[in-house]
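ok trying this again, last paste got cut off
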Amino acid sequence: MGKASRGKKKLRVSTYVAQDRRIIFGNSDSPVIDIAPMAPAAPTRPFNFEIKRGTQKRHIKKVYRFLNEESYADAFANGELRISTIETCRKYEDPLQGDAHEGTVLYRSRDYSKADWDMPGFREDALRSGIHIGPGVDGITMYGNTSQNSIQDALVLCTTVNFRPEDLSTFGKYCVEIHDIDEFFSVLTSALYQRYPIHKFYAGLVQYRNREFVGEAPPVHIGFIKPRHPYEPQQEFRMLWTVRTRKPLTAGNIVVPELSQFCRRIA
């Protein structure tokens, strides 16, 4: 890629793979995607969203957004969509939509007796518990340490990889299909970057598993971990943006006409 013209900002996009679940993530500190006013961002290479089950691999070509009002579905298909927040998701009363522990994991360290500072895995365990072990410290006992890690807040857009209205009726009977997910995500991220001080951005499949980890770090970003019950049937594909601000985030609409080329009403 040649040098960017003056007045443009750039973002880096890279790929993180964990347990056969691929998540795109980026950092606004380094370049790869051009961000220019009035112009959508174009990735230097296609993102690769895949679902792997056993030896079979299915490329994710489409995702679906269900909505409870026809006018919302029409607006979404025309590039006017509502971006929610993690904190908003925590407060929904509907048990299938709301999740009070959204973006939160619990970590329990392994127990150690007379451990040395350079014992494999020991310092990593300690750091995840908020304990710093300096070089040369020996004979350490550590047990019963628990720490909680939580996203203060982030912007989020939730979709699903399965068109199964019977499993997603709580979200609404109207549906928009999104294709070319990589381009959709790139254009939307560019637009959000003009409105918010975006720090990092992610898109990928949610992992359904226990939120408690013992002696190991979460395999993916904690915003992509949810319990199997009752959420696994939703098969969520999530887009998430963290923001450099201490001010409360609020859910709101954003109008990006360029997004309409990737969307169509199907229900």
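PB: full thing came through this time. Residues 110-144 form one domain.
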